[in-house]
Amino acid sequence: MSLKDLGDVSYFRLNNEINRPVNGQIPLHKDKEALDAFFRENVIPNTKVFASINDKINYLVSENYLEKAFIELYRPEFLAELADFIKAQNFKFKSFMAAYKFYNQYALKTNDGRYYLESLEDRVMFNALYFANGNEELATNLANEMVHQRYQPATPSFLNAGRARRGELVSCFLIQVTDDMNSIGRSINSALQLSRIGGGVGISLNNLREAGAPIKGYEGAASGVVPVMKLFEDSFSYSNQLGQRQGAGVVYLNVFHPDIIAFLSTKKENADEKVRVKTLSLGVTIPDKFYELARKNEDMYLFSPYSVELEYGVPFNYINITEKYDELVANPRIRKTKIRARDLETEISKLQQESGYPYVINIDTANNSNPIEGMITMSNLCSEILQVQEPSVINDKQEFVKMGTDISCNLGSTNVVNMMTSPDFGLSIRTMTRALTFVTDSSHIHAVPTVNHGNELAHTIGLGAMGLHSYLAQNLMEYGSPESIEFTHIYFMLMNYWTLVESNNIARERGVTFHNFENSDYANGSYFDKYTSGHYVPKSDKIKELFKGIFIPSAKDWEALKVKVMADGLYHQNRLAVAPNGSISYINDVSASIHPITQRIEERQEKKIGKIYYPAAGLSTETIPYYTSAYDMDMRKVIDVYAAATEHVDQGLSLTLFIRSDIPEGIYEWKKERKQTTRDLSILRNYAFNKGIKSIYYVRTFTDDGDEVGANQCESCVI
């Protein structure tokens, strides 16, 4: 037997039986039976066995499965000790989906795909050894965090760490285009290179002159942003890792750009094939001024990036439109066109209903809370990365006259459920910060010099979270309740505190800070003002009990940290970001990211396999009432939870809105009819803006098809 010839297996059938209530009960025990059958029928007979961990490592190195260099940093005795330590933690998968996902997508297999070469414990060990870079104590701490699933590296890091034939460790990239052909050409090459190595790519087109703008004095010569979008879409389609995955990219445009309507129209289902973009994602950057004009139902002016750059001497991206709006309107040298603000707001809502796009970046909100000198101008493919960038200047020889800074995303997540049982919350976060620091230090994207340059200067990381809804439900808290919001505040405050502590420690050890630290709000101490007031401590009895035994920094602790940071600096320009983390959350047996679950028994369509069902973590008769589907929830509750986390996160959070096409009665007080309307989305976007939300990733609309009645439809079901 091998993975190529499994024969008749029972685990898919057993797993599918979860969705068939028996006498009003959800048969969750079937998932445990499926998990046991999966190991019995699939994993155990098809895993290559070795006499010892050192024998396994020697084989993997000699056969070019593992890199030799990082293994040689450690004593053979330590390798055996670490393997024994990990084994002694007695890790067990809790669901069939978790085990299936790991062995199907993450476990190293033989070249012919017939046998497994590693278990989750092995993958944890190789991650720990790789990220610790020879430090035995750190390797042990990292292994401890990962085997107990308190820390989960992002998919590219977890999958590739230590492998001899691997992709990059980083998750995604951000690049911007300036208004000249050299930059456009260089950016297309950058997109090809970045898509080739595996990351999603965000691209800002804000600086490009609009359709009809002059070129060297000739009126009506420019073609605008849409043809450039098509070039990028073709690039991503071509550069697809030898057909293994579709290249992925998102393009961003400011709502005050004259091509904004044409930009949005490219995603409409009835768009002409010449302009329609099928695989490229769309995002809009929205200054505060747009919300004001829409609220007042006024006209809005769209400004030519070409004439703005001529007038101000900087690319359009770097103009604060909210601040300069009236000045731009009054300036006769600025080319401008006029539309109704609410008409554009409606167009955005219509497209979100139809396609889920565009992503929304509240760009002034992001910049107003940004402690780093410079401007945030865009985001990434999942809208959680918000970092300052600088434009490049490229000559006709395709040489950099001025090297700008672009962005690579070095991500990982805490598991909220397991972090709350950590014997040392602070040590856990500090250990994770060290792991991510290795990723940023060892990432060298030489094919795209601006990304490499930005990473070398900023040393940015993005530690996030998953499993918030799982934790809330298992502790009998309603998602969006005051207690859940208070919990979120404290949890993310602690993440912020301990990443600051460790970033400061690393800066002191190395005598290195991120570029331009001296001009940041960290250096002048103003960043810490809100924390030194002493407001960020648990207040309700419930939250005090949940954080019992976990160190909560006082105003004095924050003051002491402020002094240390002002004296020795921070190594990382950015530290926190909450990604959507989809498939990796299944391995952790928790809900994805910090948004609510969509189904109590989630249905996943797996290629070549069919449907797999995943019961919400900790689902029981007691927790069922707290596992409300996001589609049945007031999205303002989700926004409130994200707003609580946002206050402590220096970058962004990937916030998805979930709405039914037929909205259940009573969720929104303004609804007089059941059908979802553009007004509903406009109200929610404005609510998010007023709550200080920096970005909205995606709008997902659920349409009932009525084809299947399963555990989710059985309202009286118990476990």
TrEMBL record:
<dbReference type="GO" id="GO:0005971">
    <property type="term" value="C:ribonucleoside-diphosphate reductase complex"/>
</dbReference>
<dbReference type="InterPro" id="IPR026459">
    <property type="entry name" value="RNR_1b_NrdE"/>
</dbReference>
<dbReference type="InterPro" id="IPR039718">
    <property type="entry name" value="Rrm1"/>
</dbReference>
<keyword id="KW-0021">Allosteric enzyme</keyword>
<dbReference type="Pfam" id="PF00317">
    <property type="entry name" value="Ribonuc_red_lgN"/>
</dbReference>
<keyword id="KW-0547">Nucleotide-binding</keyword>
<dbReference type="InterPro" id="IPR013509">
    <property type="entry name" value="RNR_lsu_N"/>
</dbReference>
<dbReference type="InterPro" id="IPR000788">
    <property type="entry name" value="RNR_lg_C"/>
</dbReference>
<keyword id="KW-1015">Disulfide bond</keyword>
<dbReference type="InterPro" id="IPR013346">
    <property type="entry name" value="NrdE_NrdA_C"/>
</dbReference>
<dbReference type="GO" id="GO:0005524">
    <property type="term" value="F:ATP binding"/>
</dbReference>
<dbReference type="InterPro" id="IPR008926">
    <property type="entry name" value="RNR_R1-su_N"/>
</dbReference>
<dbReference type="Pfam" id="PF02867">
    <property type="entry name" value="Ribonuc_red_lgC"/>
</dbReference>
<feature type="domain" description="Ribonucleotide reductase large subunit">
    <location>
        <begin position="558"/>
        <end position="580"/>
    </location>
</feature>
<protein>
    <recommendedName>
        <fullName>Ribonucleoside-diphosphate reductase</fullName>
        <ecNumber>1.17.4.1</ecNumber>
    </recommendedName>
</protein>
<dbReference type="Pfam" id="PF08343">
    <property type="entry name" value="RNR_N"/>
</dbReference>
<dbReference type="GO" id="GO:0009263">
    <property type="term" value="P:deoxyribonucleotide biosynthetic process"/>
</dbReference>
<keyword id="KW-0560">Oxidoreductase</keyword>
<comment type="similarity">
    <text>Belongs to the ribonucleoside diphosphate reductase large chain family.</text>
</comment>
<dbReference type="InterPro" id="IPR013554">
    <property type="entry name" value="RNR_N"/>
</dbReference>
<dbReference type="GO" id="GO:0004748">
    <property type="term" value="F:ribonucleoside-diphosphate reductase activity, thioredoxin disulfide as acceptor"/>
</dbReference>
<keyword id="KW-0215">Deoxyribonucleotide synthesis</keyword>
<comment type="function">
    <text>Provides the precursors necessary for DNA synthesis. Catalyzes the biosynthesis of deoxyribonucleotides from the corresponding ribonucleotides.</text>
</comment>
<keyword id="KW-0067">ATP-binding</keyword>
